[in-house]
Specification:
By secondary structure, this protein is an alpha+beta fold. The protein has a domain of 164 residues: NADH Oxidase (3-Layer(aba) Sandwich). The protein is 47% helix and 11% strand. The protein is built from ten helices and four strands, in the order ααβαβααβαβαααα. The structure holds flavin mononucleotide (FMN). Flavin mononucleotide (FMN) binds next to strand 3.
């Protein structure tokens, strides 16, 4: 299979076989993560690999029971703790405990994560990202024993697939890519770009089952409503401040 075919056959997997991931396979996958480009080649991230069944079960609970059959959870964290420790040993400043490096570390962790996911899929494994790492950050950080300066930002559930779901839809390229400069969308553009999404049978079924007026209402009223977004944002900001990453 070409890389292009591999990437374009992606679908998230949420149900897994009860079969562990071979350690040599996991090591190859993690090496692919490490090879990703990263800010200043400083690798301001750590990856917590959870594979012991009891620990997977505890972590899954903190992700609201999601992907409980996964063989592994990988939690990618922004980590200035390790870098600062090195700086300290070399008698240097510790200048990375701020918002810029929270962002840079998040970008780096994301790039590593996506390399990991593509490598895992090439090895016949399935993956699902779990955004709930940002909903329950403090409890997850406590569970994983994270010190100050380490903020979990991405979770990947991984294992041998026990399902082969239909691929989800994507917006057409012309709805996302702007040639040379940003061209703001007219109402007609928005209608055209979202048609594929609104006509996708799975989405139409969701609208029908939830008795909502349209798909946008599913997102704004049910899946990610403002009230939840604000509460989760505030908890996340508190955690980031507590972890010492918002110094000026
Ligand atoms: C940052 C991020 C967070 C996500 N969080 C969740 C999650 O908490 N639960 C879940 O079932 N899927 C989650 N997903 C998977 C998305 O729902 C999925 O990628 C999207 O619906 C497209 O489907 P596909 O991956 O099958 O193409 C997440 C994906 C990303 C990138």
């Amino acid at each position: 299979m070409t890389t292009n075919d591999l990437i374009n056959s992606h679908r998230s997997i949420r149900r897994f076989q009860s079969r562990p991931i071979e350690s040599d396979k996991m090591e190859r996958i993690l090496q692919c993560g490490m090879r990703a480009s990263n800010t200043g080649n400083m690798q301001i991230y750590s990856i917590i690999l959870t594979q012991q069944p009891d620990n997977v079960a505890s972590l899954s609970k903190l992700h609201f029971g999601q992907c409980s059959s996964a063989a592994a959870f990988l939690t990618l964290c922004v980590d200035v703790n390790r870098y600062h420790h090195w700086c300290r040993l070399r008698g240097c400043d510790e200048p990375y405990d701020n918002f810029l490096w929270l962002m840079s570390g998040t970008v780096d962790a994301s790039l590593a994560a996506q390399n990991i996911c593509v490598a895992a899929e090439e090895e016949g494994l399935g993956i699902c990202y779990l955004g709930t790492v940002m909903y329950n950050t403090k409890a997850i950080a406590d569970e994983l024993g994270l010190p100050r300066g380490v903020v979990p930002v991405i979770t990947i559930a991984m294992g041998y697939p026990d399902e082969q779901p239909q691929q989800s839809e994507r917006l057409p390229l012309e709805g996302v890519v702007h040639q040379e400069k940003y061209h703001d969308y007219s109402d007609d553009d928005i209608e055209r770009v979202h048609r594929i999404r609104e006509e996708f049978p799975f989405n139409q079924e969701m609208v029908r089952q939830n008795k909502t007026r349209n798909l946008a209402e599913i997102f704004t009223q049910i899946r990610y409503p403002k009230k939840d977004n604000v509460a989760i944002s505030n908890a996340l900001l508190d955690f980031v401040a507590e972890s010492g990453m918002m110094n000026q």
